[in-house]
Design brief:
The complex is a heterodimer of chains A (112) and B (117). By secondary structure, chain A is mostly beta strands. Chain A is 0% helix and 58% strand. Chain A has strands spanning 4-7, 10-14, 19-25, 32-38, 45-51, 56-59, 62-67, 72-77, 86-94, 99-102, 106-111. In chain A, strands 2, 4, 5, 9, 10 and 11 form a 6-stranded mixed beta sheet that branches. Chain A is globular. The relative contact order of chain A is 0.34. The mean pLDDT of chain A is 93. With 117 residues, chain B is an all-beta fold. In chain B, the strands form 2 sheets. In chain B, strands 2, 4, 5, 6, 9, 10 and 11 form a 7-stranded mixed beta sheet that branches. A 4-stranded antiparallel beta sheet of chain B has the order 1-3-8-7, with no helix packed on it. Chain B is globular and about 40 Å long. The N and C termini of chain B lie far apart (33 Å). The model of chain B has no long low-confidence stretch (mean pLDDT 90). Classes of the chains: A mainly beta (112), B mainly beta (117). The interface between A and B is medium-sized, with 24 and 27 residues.
């Protein structure tokens, strides 16, 4: 089965700095890679996703890059704000979103 | 509220008892997923339905776990003979299925927190 690894497990940045979270996956057949944000005590919510036919996708301060050859993808948050503080999960899926395999999460703290 | 709902939100049970959880997905969503999440970990896939058909089931899911979605709407997850290791947050999610609107976005419910004593 698929194995998704996520690093770092914790990340602290100063407000306004950038944050980068990296994930690797093992199954080359995976073709859909979402990122979820989970605030304390709340449900995970999708913040951005990318399909394997695209190398990069951007939505305001958030971007995701995908390297299919190396089987890794990354989340980039620019101009971080305190409300960006949360746990972020990457995930990988194949076969049009049947099974989703999540990483272990990155706890991001943005220091005002 | 038109989001995904789960019931109950919390369940405390004694080891060996059976428990059943319910998930009501967003009404137009045909895909429904069950996950288990423990502290400090990402959601762990358990099973998923396309309408009423259970199409995928994790190898991690023991025979004590069973899920149903009889009419393709709400779903139930039953755990028989609960063990302390079953203590976790059980999350349900739903999606439209297929690449509509450019995403396979899953919408998660609030979860059911199970504590086995």
């Amino acid at each position: 089965g698929e194995n998704v690894e996520q690093h770092p497990s914790t990340l602290s940045v100063q407000e306004g700095d950038s944050a980068v979270i990296k994930c690797t996956y093992s199954d080359s057949a995976s073709n859909y890679f979402p990122w979820y944000k989970q605030e304390l005590g709340k449900r995970p919510q999708l913040i951005i996703d990318i399909r394997s036919n695209v190398g990069e996708k951007k939505d305001q301060r958030i971007a995701v890059t995908l390297n299919k050859t190396a089987k890794h993808f990354s989340l980039h948050i620019t101009e971080t704000q305190p409300e960006d503080s949360a746990v972020y999960f990457c995930a990988a899926s194949k076969n049009t979103g049947n099974q989703f395999y999540f990483g272990t999460g990155t706890s991001l703290t943005v220091i005002p | 509220d038109t989001g995904v709902s789960q019931d109950p939100r919390h369940k405390i049970t004694k080891r060996g008892q059976n428990v059943t959880f319910r998930c009501d997905p967003i009404s137009e969503h045909n895909r429904l997923y069950w996950y288990r999440q423990t502290l400090g970990q990402g959601p762990e896939f358990l099973t998923y339905f396309q309408n009423e058909a259970q199409l995928e089931k994790s190898r991690l899911l023991s025979d004590r776990f069973s899920a149903e979605r009889p009419k393709g709407s709400f779903s139930t997850l039953e755990i028989q003979r609960t063990e302390q290791g079953d203590s976790a947050m059980y999350l349900c999610a739903s999606s439209r299925g297929g690449w509509r609107g450019g995403s396979y976005e899953q919408y998660f419910g609030p979860g059911t927190r199970l504590t086995v004593t």
